[in-house]
TrEMBL record, chain A:
Belongs to the peptidase M48 family. This is M56 family metallopeptidase. The chain crosses the membrane at residues 6-24, 36-58, 70-96, 267-293. The keyword Protease applies. Keywords: Hydrolase, Membrane, Metal-binding, Metalloprotease, Protease, Transmembrane, Transmembrane helix, Zinc. It comes from the Bacteria. Residues 112-185 form the Peptidase M48 domain. PANTHER family: POSSIBLE SENSOR-TRANSDUCER PROTEIN BLAR, SLR0241 PROTEIN.
From TrEMBL, chain B:
The keyword tRNA-binding does not apply. Belongs to the BlaI transcriptional regulatory family. Keywords: DNA-binding, Transcription, Transcription regulation. InterPro entries: BlaI_family (IPR005650), WH-like_DNA-bd_sf (IPR036388), WH_DNA-bd_sf (IPR036390). It holds the Pfam family Penicillinase_R. Signal peptide: none annotated. This is BlaI/MecI/CopY family transcriptional regulator. The keyword Transcription regulation applies. It comes from Paractinoplanes bogorensis.
Length: 302, 116
């Protein structure tokens, strides 16, 4: 019974909930809490899968009235599969982190060489780089030695206040280590078997991180300059894997909309979403896993 | 002067020269603005070659150095990298089509193809 409930929880969290949450509009008003909720949904899904693997053999062998040797074998098999799931996630995380670090290191090397230092002395930050090119483009290269990169086009089409808004936006990505959040979701996406994986969490979290950076930039530089800058800039993906660009402009439209004065952040929504994130992680463990563990340890076959 | 700034200035000299330069030539050009040891220039060129952005060629018993890509090519490939989520270059180019003025798109594609 516990295995069935955990299985249902896992499938709901990986197949049903992402679609609903990705289409909802309330996260625009509580982006940070919504990111926490996505993390909690993903993590609880993984824990539920591991739970099924551990609980199901125990419940099946008991229901079939199997003897101790069969129960022992089933337990060993279950532990092996659970270890395999965890190992697969860790290997995926290692691979994504290693590849994106290498890509950023190479990218940083090249922007350092291409930098037109004479064009941005008065703009301030040490780690700012300006590239030739009329295409207005602004992005950051995260890591231990981060960079904020602007194209020459940005300096031409934006005024000083708008440039400051863009810099504040990129600094927020760097200061909050948003690349770590994206990497963990990418690693999870890569580790999940084909039929169960969904791009929705990746894309939704990516947009929410942009909104978090928008909110910080709005506080520093004002909503007006930020809106104007956003309307003029080409989107760059913050050097993350597996997030596709946004050809229809839907993400940009949502970001512009919430920068309008009427669209404010909601403390109540943030609190509810954050509580939901914690509850999702804690409650299944308390309600399902602990009682089962209590019974199962009494009958430990090894 | 920081090593990073020096690397950038050496690259700028090589790009502006338009032809392979010897260590001595690079040293001469940089020395017009400041006092710089010959061996420092040699070290910087060696580092840039190890990073794959500069090519070492042997000509008349002297080594000459040239950038592996022009400034424009390198800029285009850096921007493409920033606009691409993965190694899937086609997706990035399709995205470019909607975002870029046509002439800028043509230039970007041309620069990337030259690199290959």
């Amino acid at each position: 019974m516990t295995a069935l409930l955990l299985g249902a929880l896992g499938l709901t969290l990986s197949l049903v909930v992402p679609g609903i949450l990705a289409n909802a509009h309330w996260p625009d008003r509580a982006p940070a809490a919504a990111v926490a909720l996505w993390q909690s949904i993903t993590l609880t899904g993984v824990l539920a899968a591991i739970g099924v693997v551990l609980v199901a053999p125990y419940e099946l062998t008991r229901a079939a009235g199997s003897g101790k040797p069969v129960a022992s074998a089933a337990l060993i098999g279950a532990l092996a599969v659970a270890a395999l799931i965890i190992l697969r996630l860790l290997i995926s995380l290692y691979g994504v982190t290693r590849r994106s670090r290498a890509r950023r290191a190479r990218h940083r090397l090249l922007v350092d060489l291409l930098d037109r230092a004479e064009q941005h002395r008065e703009l301030g930050p040490d780690h700012l780089r300006v590239l030739d090119g009329a295409l207005p483009l602004a992005y950051c290269v995260p890591g231990r030695e981060p960079r904020v990169v602007l194209s020459h086009g940005v300096l031409q089409v934006l005024d000083r206040a708008q440039i400051d808004a863009v810099l504040a936006h990129e600094q927020t990505h760097l200061r909050h280590r948003h690349e770590v959040v994206m990497e963990s979701f990418t690693a999870f996406y890569r580790a999940v078997p084909g039929p169960l994986r969904s791009r929705k969490p990746l894309e939704a979290v990516h947009l929410l991180l942009e909104m978090i950076a928008d909110d910080a930039a709005r506080r520093r530089a004002g909503a007006g300059p930020l809106r104007a800058a956003l309307e003029r800039l080409t989107d760059a993906i913050p050097l993350a894997e597996d997030v596709k660009p946004d050809p229809a402009g839907e993400a940009r439209r949502r970001r512009l909309e919430r920068l309008a004065a009427s669209h404010t952040r909601s403390v109540a929504l943030s609190t509810v979403a954050a509580a939901g994130a914690v509850g999702l992680l804690v409650l299944p463990t308390v309600i399902l896993v602990l009682p089962w563990l209590d019974r199962a340890l009494d009958a430990w076959p090894l | 002067m920081a090593l990073g700034d020096l690397e950038r200035e050496v690259m700028t000299q090589l790009w502006d020269a338009g032809e392979p330069l010897t260590v001595r030539q690079v040293h001469e050009r940089l020395s017009r603005q400041r006092d710089l040891a010959y061996t420092t220039v040699m070290t910087v060129l060696d580092r840039l070659a190890k990073k794959g952005v500069v090519q070492q060629q042997k000509a008349d018993r002297a080594y000459k150095y040239a950038p592996t890509q022009s400034r424009e090519e390198m800029t285009a490939s850096v921007m493409l990298d920033a606009l691409t989520a993965s190694d899937d270059q086609d997706a990035a180019l399709a995205y470019f089509v909607g975002q870029l003025p046509p002439e800028a798109l043509a230039a970007a594609i041309e620069a990337v193809q030259k690199k290959r």
